[in-house]
Amino acid sequence: MKILLVGEYSNVHWALAEGLKALGHKATVLSDGDHWKGYQRDIDLRRRSLGRIDTLRYLFDLKRTWPRLCDYDVVQLINPVFLDLRAERILPYYEKLRKRNGRMFLGSFGIDKPWVEEGLKPDTFRYSDFYLFGQRRHNSFTAEMEADWMGPKGELFDTIAHDCDGIIAGLYENYRCCQPKYAEKLHFIPFPVSSPSHPSPRTSHPSPLTFFIGIQRKRSEYKGTDIMLRALEKLHAKYPTQMRVVKAESVPFAQYQKMMDESQVLLDQLYSYTPAMNGLLAMSKGLVLVGGAEPEHYDLLGEHELQPIINVQPTEEDVFLQIEKRLLQHPDDIRQLSLDSQRYVRRHHDPIRVAERYLSVWGL
Length: 364
Known about the structure:
Rossmann fold, seven-stranded parallel sheet, five-stranded parallel sheet
């Protein structure tokens, strides 16, 4: 079968393509590499800037690429905004893809209209991008999300979601948010994660214990890395010889992975119920993940035994407490947590197993 995966989000489509190819299918990924992250793709479609010349070049590249985007059995879009164009200009391209290919599926893998629409309700989650235990969060990124997705982007989501053959959610939050309107065509499939060929657990007594945190300057408050970093700095002041803190600030994916490989613990996604691609990649390498892993996420996976993620509530105090109690005071537990993290990823996120679930949903 021929499958076209359009767009990229933290390496989801490339990892899925690897699983599909291992099963004997032809999978092609078209993307811009997820901007500065530089993920692999088969067809590179980048818009270098919003300037007139680069816009014309992008439109020319899109037109030149179009003959390669036809006659696929399945096309999956990473998001309704699958091209680097204004939402109002994307719908004709969707209609062309729909006309020239087989079945069409829409990914719900992060921020989209249902995510914003449901998130704006104070009782959908205990905490989220928009609310923290019943209190509204206010920051520039949430304001931007609301403006974006309650306007033309939201209209584009509605049009594609109603027309496509199915919607696939990759996180508990996406699945929960899409249910009210799209339950009849909604499916949950965990993200695919390419694990190392010969993974090895982190040592029982690393000295010092290296904590790794990725920081995107414009999204730090939204992601919660500001709170996590403050907790780490306080812990380091208390345990200066037992730990060190490594920060990655908007670095390319290859460099980011190298920094991750030299660490034992990753902090990620403070306001999430579910580990996302960054955290899962770290777990596949044997790092211990500190972040969101609420019971709802394990229930959706059907996982009631293997729960290695150190779940934290979205407060500086709880991040400090959980790291101190679970890791710094019990370094002997690190090896088992590392082994369990790798088992967890192999059990739920193996690209071949995930690809098999996609093929079933796609009807192939």
